[in-house]
UniProtKB/TrEMBL annotation:
It holds the Pfam family Methyltransf_33. This is Dimethylhistidine N-methyltransferase. Residues 8-309 form the Histidine-specific methyltransferase SAM-dependent domain. One of its GO terms (molecular function) is methyltransferase activity. SUPFAM superfamilies: S-adenosyl-L-methionine-dependent methyltransferases. It comes from Aquiflexum balticum DSM 16537. Keywords: Methyltransferase, Transferase.
């Protein structure tokens, strides 16, 4: 991530009447470490739910894909540890696949490839480092049918219309008969969702505040971390879980040649995590040009792996 785009995004976001910072900047080295802690939290149910579905229903999902030979393209693939569960199920029912993980981090893709080949040494793995908004173009020239995967409830980071735009963007790279598999966090007891973004140990707070620390470190900002509080809220009507940093006092912050004034209790919006009902997912499939969809949920109905067909 170039520091030019970082400084530009920060200045633009903090100049807005409703201050905001892009959530993609959470994930520097320290932020990524803290996020690993979040993934282990009791309150943060999402990874456990996704794994449960993968362990129990991967074979059913694979059986829905009526191609014997196809490419599996994963957007934002990470280390591939969860995907491996699915790939093993696909291979075990005798389908021939090529796995194409895409991620911005070349390093994580090396780990991914090693991970997969340790367990599936005969699998063809072709890594594609870079921003998947660009690298996805590479799949257009591939002749085989395809399944595109977008896991980890990452669709939740696209608010409202942006989610529709993104799924349409994926659809544009699919041919009729291709599939799109998406991890989605479902609407549920609002207290369960709120607790996932307001854990008792304050790990989410550290994760949020690290964004300000990163601005101090990389952009020579002078945020006083003790003068900000993390606040996570969930709106059960809209299905949006929102994260904010709240200025606990009136203060001025300096970054590069810019000064930003904060009133007491003024907020910086840092993240949205959208939740869906199964009915809303059905509507989303229709709006984004898919002919059918099927939902595979965990035992509590907290989470879905939703398979769309073009």
């Amino acid at each position: 991530m170039g520091s030019d785009s970082f400084i530009n995004d920060v200045i633009w976001g903090l100049s807005d009447p409703q201050k905001h910072l892009p959530s993609k900047y959470f994930y520097d080295e320290k932020g990524s470490r803290i996020f690993q802690e979040i993934m282990q939290m009791d309150e943060y149910y999402l990874p456990g739910c996704e794994r449960e579905i993968l362990y129990k229903q991967s074979q059913q999902i694979a059986n829905e894909i009526n191609h014997e030979e196809f490419d599996i393209i994963e957007l934002g693939a990470g280390d591939g540890s969860k995907t491996l569960i699915f790939l093993e199920a696909v291979v075990n029912i005798g389908k021939k696949i090529t796995y194409i993980p895409m991620d911005i981090s070349e390093e994580i893709l090396k780990v991914n490839r090693q991970h997969i080949l340790e367990r599936l040494p005969d699998l063809s793995v072709e890594v594609l480092p870079g921003d998947y908004f660009s690298t996805i173009r590479a799949i257009e020239s591939r002749p085989k049918p395809r399944l595109v995967m977008f896991m980890g409830s990452n669709i939740g980071n696209f608010p409202g219309e942006k989610a529709i735009e993104f799924i349409r963007f994926v659809n544009d790279y699919l041919n009729p008969g291709d599939y799109f598999l998406m991890g989605v966090d479902l609407k549920k007891n609002p207290h369960v969702i709120r607790a996932a973004y307001n854990d008792k140990k304050g790990i989410t707070k550290r994760f949020n505040l690290n964004l300000l620390e990163r601005i101090n470190r990389e952009l020579k900002g002078d945020f006083n971390l003790k003068a900000f509080e993390h606040y996570g809220v969930y709106n059960p009507l809209s299905g949006a879980a929102l994260s904010f940093l709240v200025s606990m006092q009136e203060q001025d912050i300096h970054i590069a040649d810019h000064t930003f004034h904060f009133d007491q209790y003024e907020t910086i919006h840092t993240e949205v995590s959208q939740k869906y009902s199964l009915k809303e997912l059905d509507q989303l499939a229709i709006k984004t040009g898919f002919s059918w969809d099927r939902h595979f949920t965990d035992s509590r109905g907290y989470y879905s792996l939703s398979l769309f067909k073009k």
